[in-house]
Amino acid sequence: MASSTEENYLKSLFNLANEQGEVSISDLAQNLHVSMPTANSMVKNLQKQGWVGYEKYKPVILTQEGKKAAALVIRKHRLTEMFLVKKMGFGWEEVHEVAEQIEHIHAPKFFERMDEMLGFPTIDPHGSPIPDAQGRIQEFSYLPLSSCKVGQEVQLTALTNSSTEFLEFLNGRALRLGLNLKIHSREAYDQSMVVSYDDHPSETLSEKVCERLLVRVIGK
Amino acid sequence: MASSTEENYLKSLFNLANEQGEVSISDLAQNLHVSMPTANSMVKNLQKQGWVGYEKYKPVILTQEGKKAAALVIRKHRLTEMFLVKKMGFGWEEVHEVAEQIEHIHAPKFFERMDEMLGFPTIDPHGSPIPDAQGRIQEFSYLPLSSCKVGQEVQLTALTNSSTEFLEFLNGRALRLGLNLKIHSREAYDQSMVVSYDDHPSETLSEKVCERLLVRVIGK
DNA sequence: TTAGATACTTAGATTAATCTAACAAATTTG
DNA sequence: CAAATTTGTTAGATTAATCTAAGTATCTAA
């Protein structure tokens, strides 16, 4: 069974591979805030346990077992986030730190009961998919708001970044998942967009923000 | 801040002191399933951090800070047990292992929300008191059933042992906290007692069991 | 195409938590 | 009370996870 530390490495490898494709030792080290030699020796350890394939100076690749193990940790993390928000009254900006700890709890029934109580959710509070109990993960094909056109109506469905600062920024503008946005204009100079929703008749969102908002087109 | 390991030592010291008074290095080592040298060096470490007082060959004594730190870990443990039983549908025999892990989570709001959702409970599912947020613990004065007299009516209020095996034994006889028991007889030879409750007109309980059942006298 | 920069590895040290072996103090008991 | 037993301590080793320093491989770009 993986230690908490090993679980964190598996999770990082999984997430980095999804974001970037190939994952180098330095990517991994940076992501986990450890030195390269530390990441290097842990990768060798993970390899010995059959979770990753690795050859000197080559990218690190999760094996099938490694992917499954990683997905199951991510499952625990995202189920926990959903539970904290839906059942315990946490804000979506407060759940990450707690979930980072609870994801390492070994207690199948605990997470099964969360899953049941939540009605078997498929996404977490930030719109990321929750892997199933077999470690299978459903991929959605959402677009960044930044790639949408003026005049379109879209629904905010997920985020590519769930840092506390970004979530607090969204809270400040009453932006939440499920909201319908109308795209009124885009500024050619800096790619910022003006949108409206609910009782917000005109909000300007920077390119940086628009890239992090994932949407589904619903109109025009 | 105490590591999980340190928290476990503090908890053991607190519980052992309550059960036995003086706590030796060997008591501690036995209780935590570690060797005496391990317990010895951890006690020195806890002393350096101001949680225990210790002199060579003398009993280990928690300081005020040590007692408070221990009580706050026990608070997290017992709140978690109550949450698992009352909010997540666990049986009282299933909660210990999970609570042993969750008690080490550092997330004040998580436990505050549990407390609120449970209506600020004062006892856990096994009748043990839950320390308050300041680490103060309310002591009850319950009697073991074994010390009660034939003819008395008593209410089952707590247990002195909450091992899975004992709890499953109680489950098998539908014995649970809050139940009123009538004491019909006691066998002089082995101190076993015959009691009745609910639709159980006659159950024989061994001395070992009677010592572990804590009650409040309500009649005769 | 080779010099310089970047990425990676090796070597060796550190810390927390554990162990066993050996010795020392304290307690119990004949 | 002295011997035997129990309890506690010291010394030294181990493992997981981390680090820094130093050296090596790979990539990039003049």
Verbal overview:
The structure is a homodimer. With about 220 residues, chain A is an alpha+beta fold. Chain A is built from eight helices and eight strands, in the order αααββαααββαβββαβ. In chain A, the strands form two sheets. A six-stranded antiparallel beta sheet of chain A has the order 3-8-4-5-6-7. In chain A, strand 5 and strand 6 form a beta hairpin. In chain A, helix 4 crosses helix 5. Chain A is globular. The model of chain A has no long low-confidence stretch (mean pLDDT about 95). Chain A binds a DNA duplex (30 and 30 nucleotides) through helix 3. Chains A, B: Belongs to the DtxR/MntR family. Chains A, B: Keywords: DNA-binding, Transcription, Transcription regulation. Chains A, B: In the presence of manganese, represses expression of mntH and mntS. Up-regulates expression of mntP.
